[in-house]
Amino acid sequence: MTTPTIDPELDLTIERVIHGPRSSVWRAWTEPALLERWWIPAPMVTHVDTLDVRPGGGFVTQMSEDGATFVPHTDTVFLVVDEGHRLVFTNAVNSSWRPTRPEPVSMTAEIILVDHPEGTAYTAVVRHGDPAQRRLHEDLGFFDGWGTVTAALATLVEQGGAVEQGGAA
Hints:
The protein has four helices and seven strands; from the N terminus they run E-H-H-E-E-E-E-E-E-H-H. The protein is α+β, with helices and mostly antiparallel strands. A seven-stranded antiparallel beta sheet has the order 1-7-6-5-4-3-2. The two termini are 26 Å apart.
């Protein structure tokens, strides 16, 4: 399956080299206990309700400012799962396979992991249906929000927090 090209009029992109193995980055994305450690900018807290990493599987999270009262955050469905390399999910369809009108924007996110001499080349491409949605998402702080959680993901991986038990990554 080929990856669609990036359209700067419709897509927002975060790229970073994470100094750790691709398998550790994958684990941080696909294991609930690890995802909860970086998915929401601190000091907020994440709870993963569903992380069914397969095409058609649900991806549902909640967030909390105080660690006690949680509100819905993400209710999406995985479209593509290329084990260890690529995840694609959308909020235009929820985990119950119902069409949605998510606020504030409808999007499809593609996470791409590629081996790099210094670790893992990490790319997050967030696709929008029209330029107005893309601009709105950027204006709402896309680069700060996604940049912050990407940095938290990198820190988790680079500090060894996503290494498989037994030392193998």
